[in-house]
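>> received
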Amino acid sequence: MRARQYLPALEFCKKRNLRIIHEMPKINWLVVELPEHTSFEKFHEIVIHSNLFYMIEQYKHVSVTSTATNYTYDQVYQLPALQCQEAWNEIALSPPPTYNIVTVVDFGLDTNHPDMVGQTFNNYDTASGTNNVLPVGNQKHGTGASSQIVAKNDGTYAIGVSPYDTKVSFVNASSDYVVQNNVFYDIFSYGLYHCMQMPNCMATSNSYLFGAHSDPAGPVQFMQEMVYDALLYGRGGNADAIPPVLGKGVLAFCANGNGPSNGGSIAPPNRPIYPASYDGVIAVTATEPYNGDFRKTFWADYGTITFCAAPGSSTPASKPNFETQLFGGTSGATPLTAGVAALIHAANPNLSAWYRDWE
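>> returned
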């Protein structure tokens, strides 16, 4: 659960005897156990209407041993839902000259997990400045998000949407800010900057929100300009040339949030949330299976900023320490969408991130 302010949220949990599994006060996160005999829907309603929290995600985990049955294509329900096998078949007919890269900005990635070995490139920890992005404590969010894109389809535990032609470049958001070349970046803009340093990086995936999201001060001009620069000059462009040279562009995929926008008074539809509300960003909401099709999950935000939706209800994913988890929320839908974009680009390497009539 993501709190507006940490101490009041902590007091809320203690008064209601919620079992706290993990505390992350620096980023206002609390991991708690769902009370017995309480549905997630009811729990979500009570917690959101306390006005102390603005995002809640449900996680389930399933321990996996070397003798356990691993997930198959059909069991990872998001894969057939997104027609991934058809995409893989299409790409196999004409393999791209090199792999795509998607920068995932998140918290802790288990690069030693069998699903992820060999699937990452140029990782970066924002606190230490090293490539050690391993999870600390109970962090599993970054491993789940990254595996949605590139988890191997080789008989290991989970399967990503683009395991053959894409690698994740993971930015561990262990610090809120990064200074590079005398420029001060927040984690969102640094993710774009990091992506733009790699010729094959075509997107960032951002499964987090920041600021006072239900009542934000407004967009930060530098971050908005970073989105525009990434779209126009990423992948081969040069903003400093005279005249500037346009590149193929870098896309920013951002989670739409897991608030009560379906009629709730705390966060009505079309509220500005960041980074999803920046112009040019692809804001993603979540769907769940329903009567042989899909519908928006009751807890996923929506509105005019929403560009698309993807499966986000208990999607199988990797978890640190050789385990799997049922991931979800708009946090799960966002990397899935970035992975689909990577598949599209693998099949059509000349595509640009922006409309040609911008020239």
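>> The chain has eight helices and 17 strands.
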